Amino acid sequence: MVYLTAFLRASLKLKETLNHQADKILQRTVEVQTSKKARSLTEKWIKSGAPIAVDIESHNNGKRGKPGLITIKDDSKNIYLFRTGLDNHLMVELKITFENPKVIKIMHGAGSDIRCLRQSGIQIQNIFDTSIEHIKIHPANGSIGLNELCSH
Question: Which residues are registered as beta bridge partners of 32?
Fold first, then answer.
């Protein structure tokens, strides 16, 4: 019974810790809903020249995959959600960021994301793909998932 009580206490403490961390992340997360806000962020990222982390979720309409949700995390640990599937005007502003060589775009397994952007008329520049870099360093291991990479 003592072990079970200690386990339950530890589980509750872990849950509290995770909830606190999730709250901190949610406080830094913003859904960008206007082109004006997207333009402001684009200008900020280009001016700072700091890298941004990018993840793209796409959906298929017929043969062409289009970005439906783009998540960007900046060097201040702010997270921005662009629901481009609902408002394609956001892509006009993001295109400026993606095509600007001054901003490094950090991605993982970016192949399908790059194809998706190209199909939307965006020629992304200055990409750092963590998957490819891992293969360069550890060629015998081959491709690796992001969770596994982060555990190293």
Answer: 82
Rounded CA separation 124/120 (Å): 11
The model's pTM is 0.77
pLDDT, residue 47, reads: 95
Q: Which two tokens stand for residue 27?
A: 């406080």
Residue ranges, the chain, pLDDT below 50 = 62
132-141 CB burial, b ≥16 within 10 A, e <16 = bebeeeeeee
DSSP the chain: -HHHHHHHHHHHHHHHHHHHHHHHHHHTEEEE-SHHHHHHHHHHHHHH---EEEEEEEEEETTEEEEEEEEEE-TT--EEEE-TTT-THHHHHHHHHHH-TTS-EEESSTHHHHHHHHHTT----SEEEHHHHHHHH-TTT----HHHHHH-
